[in-house]
Design brief:
The protein has helices at residues 6-10, 16-35, 50-69, 77-93, 101-115, 122-126, 134-154, 165-178, 189-200, 204-207, 210-224, 230-236, 243-262, 268-289. The chain is an all-alpha fold.
């Protein structure tokens, strides 16, 4: 099912270099657009470098995760996983200098609630912006709705996301049923859940099938508990004679663990410096960016002008 899905066909990449190349191209595309615009006093030093965009991305991704984890009613993990994947896919092909992550992250979370059938109203959703007044919440909602179709378009209308949570449940059931050597498979759950939470904050979901991420989470949990699962792979999953597949599986697991080890949140001082730069960019170039949110620029549809701009609310309003 996964391999025939849009995710399997279009959103799984061969290597970390392929993913990084797309982000580099998105950065260069916007830089070239601005530098070629003929605007006075435009210099490359004012624009975000690729590594600075990564600082911004990780900061706002973490803000989105915090927002979703504090959400009332409690947001299912699959909804959060879908929101994170939307966010990562969007910024594969777009620059944060063109579309501010502050509103894109909320739009990703809002759309994931709808797609994953987490039944909350739009009023309930923005009601979770606890530091905002009712008028401010209404303003944010208007911006979310302005950007929603743009987000859907940039996702190529591929809205169904296969998360690793369901495969992990299937693996735990399989362990209970077919691997009696392991006395208490449920003992692996907590560390496996922690692994999936960390993996969601990396590019694992753009590089590996969800079932492989789930299997790595289970095996990593077993390894930390000092339990051997090799016979599960060779006997239950029948990989004993398939040396090539087993070798590829181990290689993918090593790559995945390396991704998690490499991940770290940016330093506060780096975040502050990059945010100041980002806000200056949006202040200078936002007039052209705000022309289109609800529709297709190439088809000549122009969104109505929003009554308020995203600069009128800040990160402090999110929680």
């Amino acid at each position: 099912m996964f391999h025939k899905s849009s995710q399997g066909k279009y959103w799984i990449f061969e290597s970390e270099d392929d993913v990084e190349q797309k982000r580099y191209q998105a950065n260069q595309k916007f830089r070239n657009k601005i530098l070629e615009s003929g605007k006075p006093a435009v210099s490359e030093s004012k624009l975000l470098e690729r590594h600075e965009e990564d600082v911004i991305f990780r900061y706002y991704e973490k803000r989105m995760v915090d927002f979703c984890n504090a959400f009332k009613p409690v947001m299912p993990k699959s909804v959060l996983g879908t929101a994170i994947m939307y966010f990562r896919r969007f910024y594969l092909n777009n620059s944060s200098m063109e579309y501010h992550p502050r509103i894109i992250m909320l739009t990703c979370a809002y759309l994931s609630c709808k797609v994953d059938e987490f039944n909350v109203s739009s009023t309930q959703f923005v009601g979770n912006l606890l530091q905002e007044t009712p008028a401010g919440q209404e303003m944010v909602l208007e911006q979310i709705l302005e950007y929603e179709l743009l987000l859907i378009q940039q996702l190529n209308f591929h809205l169904v996301v296969h998360n690793p949570y369901r495969p992990m449940e299937g693996l735990l059931i399989d362990l209970k049923t077919r691997f009696p050597t392991l006395e208490n498979p449920e003992s692996l759950r907590k560390n496996a859940d922690d692994f999936l939470t960390q993996a969601a904050m990396t590019d694992a979901g753009l590089l590996f099938p969800p079932s492989q991420i789930a299997l790595t989470a289970i095996l990593n949990s077993a390894s930390r508990a000092g339990l051997s699962m090799e016979s599960y792979l060779t006997e239950c999953l029948q990989l004993k004679e398939d040396k090539e597949t087993l070798s590829k599986l181990y290689d993918s697991m090593r790559r995945m663990k390396t991704l998690l080890k490499k991940y770290e949140l940016p330093k506060p001082e780096d975040v502050n410096a990059c945010k100041k730069k980002l806000e200056r960019i949006h202040a200078e170039f936002s007039s052209s960016n705000n022309k289109r949110k609800r529709g297709y620029e190439e088809e000549g549809h122009v969104a109505k002008e929003p009554r308020l701009t995203e600069e009128e609310w800040t990160d402090e309003d999110l929680l």
